Amino acid sequence: MNGKSLLPLVWLFCGFCACSSPPSGEIRKPSQPHWKKELLATAFQAATSFPLDPHIKNRSRDQEKVVDVCLKTGLYDLALHWIPKIKNWRQGSAYADLAFFLLRGDARDLRSKIPLFLHKARKIAEEARRSPNSQEWRVGRILAKIARAELLLGRKEAAQGLAKSLPPSEAGIVQLAQARNLKPEELRKHLESLGKNSSLEDFEEGRTAMALLGEAYRRFFRDKGMREFLEKQAQKSFHGLPLDLRLKAIFSMADVALRQGNKKAAHRLVQWAGQKIKGIHLLAEHQIPLLARLAALRGRMGEREGAEQGLELCLSLFRKSRKRIINVFRAEVLLPVAEAYFQLGKHEQAVGVYEKALQEAWVNPNSRPRADDLVRICCSLVLNGCKPSPRLGQNLKAAQKGLGDPW
Predict the structure, then answer these.
(1) 137 in Cβ contact with 88 (< 8 Å)
(2) HEC secondary structure over 290-335
(3) In this predicted model, which residue has the larger pLDDT, 335 or 108?
(4) I need a surface site. Which of 23, 90, 205, 391 has the fewest CB within 10 A?
(5) Is residue 86 exposed (0-12), middle (13-18) or buried (19+ Cβ within 10 Å)?
(6) Which of 327, 357, 330, 328 is nearest to 342 (CA)?
């Protein structure tokens, strides 16, 4: 059975709040509890269980996912320990990410090694370029992340030189980094231009545009005029983009508004998103993650009863539609529901949904989709700070040890 990831509509919302990039500037990460390190170790072992031949793509992608969570939670030593175990071009991507996070973080003991990490990333990019199986976007991904780090180092010319050779699918990484330094009037003009571009239908370009909206909303939230402009852009422009990309920006903005203590702004955004979701027909595997995300936001707005009813609806929809959802997608559909329950302070219910996700992951007899889901579940628990029950923790470890033929 194919373990291919669910359509972008689902994975964009799995753990979105916790997975979103932190604000620019130096980031100070608190020390992480041991249980998080154990879960990440289980996830990395699951990813490394894939045989290199013929599953190097799945293996490396999942390994990089775990490293990414390490970086987002400040576990830089773990990331540094695991990156060399990635056996394809994604190792270079991970080294460039490590340099970027160190530049924004507080791990001063590792900052002296940033030039080394960028050198390793460049070397791997060149090796990937010379490979007989070379693909432009893979090399571009590494170079874009190097350019992003160069911008933080103040080496604009070096970053611009790298950016010139990037394919459109990867240019957004640099564009987003550059936009963080634009003045309000410059950013307004740029977004107006993007919003009028009716041909803006490329997924990566669209995702960049929506990320720009979210980043601008965070930066200029206290500027009422700019805030209202950005909300209008997200709601009334970019009609050529898929709805899921636009909703991602709306959810990001609502999260910012709540963090700023502005429930009125959050309510406007959540209400618009809710109306959009109700106004179109969606398959259950697409609808459930969206409804779960809405419920989490409503709970944070103080609408706890409605939020809990929304999550009950999600579980009801899952039960009714379960047989129509392909089994390799079921666990991923449930994760946003578990995350939302935890954000509402319902730890027991959250753990119960995580347990259900693990059970669904093991319906398929093949280890490839099982390993993918096991990595997702462990990463979701860590990013959301949801400590598993002893039983769930034991089951996750047992699941990892049970991976093997058939893949």
Answers:
(1) no
(2) HHHHHHHHHHHCCCHHHHHHHHHHHHHHHHHHHHHCCHHHHHHHHH
(3) 335
(4) 391
(5) buried
(6) 357
Residue 50: what are its φ and ψ, rounded to 5°?
-60, 130
Least Cα distance to 257 among 214, 207, 211 occurs for 214
Instruction: Give per-residue pLDDT as tens, 28-45.
Output: 455 789 999 999 999 999
Average pLDDT, the chain: 90
- 3-state SS class at 39: helix
Instruction: Count Cβ atoms below 10 Å from residue 314 Cβ, excluding itself.
Output: 26
- Is the Cβ–Cβ distance between 254 and 270 less than 8 Å? yes
Alpha-carbon distance of 250 to 403, in angstroms, equals 39
Which pair of tokens denotes residue 225? 């005029």
* Contact between residue 247 and residue 276 where contact means Cβ atoms under 8 Å apart: yes
Is there a contact between 290 and 282 (Cβ–Cβ < 8 Å)? yes
DSSP code, position 83 = G
The distance of Cα 115 from the centroid of its chain, to the nearest Å, equals 26
* Lookup result for tokens 């964009």: 12
Could you tell me which residues come within 8 angstroms of residue 77 by beta carbon, excluding any fewer than 6 positions away? none
In this structure, how many other beta carbons lie within 10 angstroms of the beta carbon of residue 73?
21
Buried (b) or exposed (e) across 107-126, using 16+ Cβ within 10 A?
Answer: beebeebbeebbebbbebbe
In contact, 59 and 85? CB cutoff 8 Å: no
For residue 268, the number of C-alpha atoms closer than 13 Å in the C-beta half-sphere is 13
Query: Is the pTM for the entire model greater than 0.85?
Result: yes
Average pLDDT over every residue of 235-254: 88
**The total number of residues written for the chain in this structure:** 407
Amino acid at 148: R
